[in-house]
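#data-curation
PF: Archiving a pair of folding outputs for the training set. Convention for this channel: one message per protein, sequence first, structure tokens after, nothing in between. First:
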Amino acid sequence: MDAAYNAPMETLAASLRQRLEGDVIAAPGAWNGLVARAIARAGFEACYISGGATANACGLPDIGLVPLDEMCVQIHHVVEGCGLPTIVDADTGYGDADMTAKTCRDYIAAGAAAMHLEDQVFPKRCGHLDGKELVSTEAMCEKIQAAAEAKTDENFVLIARTDARGVEDMDAALQRGCAYREAGADMIFPESLRSPEEFATFAQGCPGLLLANMTEFGKTPHIPLHAFGAMGYDLVIYPVTTQRIAMRAVESALEALRQSGTAEGLLPQMQTRAELYDLLDYEPSAQWTPAPASPRA
């Protein structure tokens, strides 16, 4: 097993910092520990936990309804499952600056390597929907400063997301991004940009570590990972990709089962029992010892 996949939780933030010094990193979204294991097995270097995908898995919309303690349980399961540096959505920080500071401490304790805060008014909306509202730049900077001061791991990566492009314009997004970096954010996340040219413009106007969101069915066109890297982005998240794929398969399978009354015809589409046990590193005849997933050879 690669040592990076077997690192203690307290070193994962440092591992992420080290990896960010290299090529652009892809971080697919995990909405439970099993998906996280599959991400590690597939050979990815980082994992992402979306607030939206976590809410969806609970049967809820992405409007900030998952409590902080439940999100921390999710972080624990995902990090324990994959052993990868994990970036976590913190929505609007679960409240004011003091609550944002607590969120930072709790996320670190749960095993996260990074978190991102957004500058929307609560209740927030998905970043690729219209009708969003922003808090003031000053209020967001106060939250960022509180989180930066609350870090119990100096390597923890604090990411500030701005939704200003979709609410105001690119100039406002750039102004906020630069202000957030000055306030203590390690990385800036410009949400809902509309073209490669906009991503390039933002990178030029807000130099430093940058995150791009490559979600489907939103405002952003599909841009390859290498193109983001060439524009100066360090980390690209794919927040709901695995969940969307899984749910389409679930819906199709349920319809087939309802119509036929048997799951036999679905067997070729299923992960077998043996494949599941392999992913879990589980041998029924032996004592099971929890360990992160090993990358595929």
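PF: Second:
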Amino acid sequence: MTVGSTPSRAVVVGTGSRAQMFTEALARRPRLRVAALCDPNPVRIAHHQRLLKEAGEPEAAAWSPEEFERRLRADDIQEVVVTCVDALHDAYIVPALRAGCRVVTEKPMTTDAAKCRRILETVRETGNHLAVAFNYRFNPVHEEVHRQLSGGAIGEVLSVHFEWLLDTRHGADYFRRWHREKEHSGGLMVHKSSHHFDLVNWWLGARPEEVFGYGRLGFYGRAAGERSGYRREYERAHGAAAARDDPFALELAENDAMRSLYLDAEGMDGYHRDRNVFGDDITIEDDMALLVRYDTGATMTYHLTAYSPWEGYRVMFNGTRGRLELEVEESAWQPPLLGTSSGRGTIHGDQALANAGGPRLVLRPLWEPPREVALPEFDHAGHGGGDERMLEVLYGPVDPAAATGKAAVDASDASRRRATEEDGALALVTGLAANQSFVSGRPVATADIVTP
């Protein structure tokens, strides 16, 4: 969005590590400008201000959360990007919609039913919509799955099995930070699995109606760590002698970005990014199994494991004319974080892994030999290429002068569509129903939670 030749002014809310993808994307587009950064921690804001300055951008103003709503209008903001703690998304989405801004929010859209209804009601009142950054929709492999299913390759889809494996680098990381507290993240069923629930909704063209599940904290946390012998006696890794030989510990001082964003910022808010994954006060699950029924009659079995030796996912679709099987290996075996000098400050997403596998899609029609479906090259560092393609659709093409060394982005596939607030709610409601079922031990109707 631009007004004449004047770049649209954007504010990025929340300046943790995920915000960097958006600040860099906006800086690479001459039609947009990061006019402000909003966060309660000025040290983290300063980190992003430095990155923008290095990119040759004008200085972005620093906002506190308390002044967000007032400054939207006072500073003539047209674009809002929400990347803060999940449970706080609605506090920024709602006033931004009311101010007429174009809003993009990281997934999940929010973390509970009341906040979801508040967002949906604001959309209805204002007529202003938002986009949810489900980057998996833009992965070319996932688009090929969509083409196969929508083209009738296996007929009517009757059932799906989705197995998601988080390894002991990426999976463990959710148990070091604020995500380990369900009141802030909604748990992995909301924060992480909303990616997959949205994909299945999109792939099937279906809405979830009923969810039943079991979930437990069986690997991380104090009790599990004491049973397995993995627990070390420390609260957080930095400065702790007991963490030096702990393969689950993260040393923030060994990673420049982590040190700048979190270790140097601790004095402002007391937030520790490197807590013991076998510590106390973990309220999320690490092993979850679901059964989901959709309005098409299809069912899905879903399992998330957050402590696997390798990372990736397997999805199998059974239809009236055959079966489609997707397997994606996102990381292979890796050394422990503190086990080698090169791993001490490495976290998931820092770099593509040379020994990681890739995607494989196999079509097995009835009464015909199976055949492998040709797939594009897989980008391990960018969610299969989904990040760049999503940003291209959300914000338009990159300035050629800022795209040095980057391949052109193909964002033309007709099967892709950006996720709206309705899609965000439909992905969220499966996770919320799962969380309720974990407690009650009974199936939960999604209509009893939120009806988008």
